[in-house]
Amino acid sequence: MNKKNILSVKNLEKIYTTKESNTHALNNLNLDVKEGEIFGLLGPNGAGKTTFINILGGTVIKTSGTVNVWGFNLDKNPRQVRASIGIVPQEVNLDPFFSPKKLLELQAGLYGIPKKDRITDTILKLVSLDHKANSYARSLSGGMKRRLLVAKALVHQPPIVFLDEPTAGVDVELRKKLWENVKLLNNRGVTIILTTHYIEEAEKMCDRVGILNKGNLIALDTTKNLLEKIQTKKVKIKTDKNIEIVDNELSSLKLISKSENSINISYEKSKISMEQLIQLIKKKNAIIKDISTDDGDLEDVFLRLTKN
């Protein structure tokens, strides 16, 4: 089934002008996000990810281009666009003297949601804060505060939720918890767009990934396809005795490191087959005891693309 585009961005530009210079924060950005997907916007700090989110949230004015969200045009229907998205910011900005329940009720009031239509308790349950509904926000742990920010973004039940670096500065345990929350939301039909510079996050979470660098979209594909583009394969081989291997003994072969009875090498998948590698070791009269391979990860794609 072909899912419709829930977000459409055409030729989006953002130029910051000062007396000295013009900075292109976003340079002719084109992308579509489909309904129901988890879309990752990857890039180093300063790549333009937050600028992009702020344009959609209405806190930054774009220089040119068109943006459509949930069928609404940003220029013609800015209010409907803002009502269609929930934004979870990077920094925790909560009033310490309000309880989660109070904060969500307040937020619902700001969106003009009538009392009878509010789903405060459902949202608190969804982010596992129902047991803290009436505690002061200042008494919540860091992880709870993060989840409360997610809850705040869900008050008006938007079809799209933006998470801006949701796990920056967060420990591994909490990161996993947040990922679970995001998956849960997505299973309920919410489209998720997350910006991140944690490659692992994008790899685990996202159906598709766009890579931004210096305001330019330098890649846009399914996570799977991007991973398949990696040509370099790394292999660790343990043998029954020490062997000598030199760079380019087979085309593209590189020795990374060696220790007793063990070598780490890399090669291009298109140039060498595993079979050829095994034959090479056999020629050296050694027996292979163990072999482990590493197919690389999004980090390899990322580094290669941002370098070029």
Write a brief caption for the model.
With 308 residues, the chain is of the alpha/beta class.
Provide a descriptive summary of the structure in words.
The structure is a single chain. This protein has helices at residues 49-57, 78-84, 100-110, 120-126, 142-154, 172-187, 199-205, 223-228, 274-283, 298-307; strands spanning 5-17, 22-34, 38-42, 64-69, 72-73, 85-88, 160-164, 191-196, 208-213, 216-222, 232-239, 254-259, 262-268, 288-294. It has 308 residues and is of the alpha/beta class. The chain has 2 domains: 5-228, P-loop containing nucleotide triphosphate hydrolases (Rossmann fold, 3-Layer(aba) Sandwich); 232-296, 2-Layer Sandwich (Alpha-Beta Plaits). The strands form 3 sheets. A 6-stranded mixed beta sheet has the order 6-7-8-3-9-10, with helices on both faces. Strands 2-1-4-5 form a 4-stranded antiparallel beta sheet, covered by helices on one side. Strands 12-13-11-14 form a 4-stranded antiparallel beta sheet.
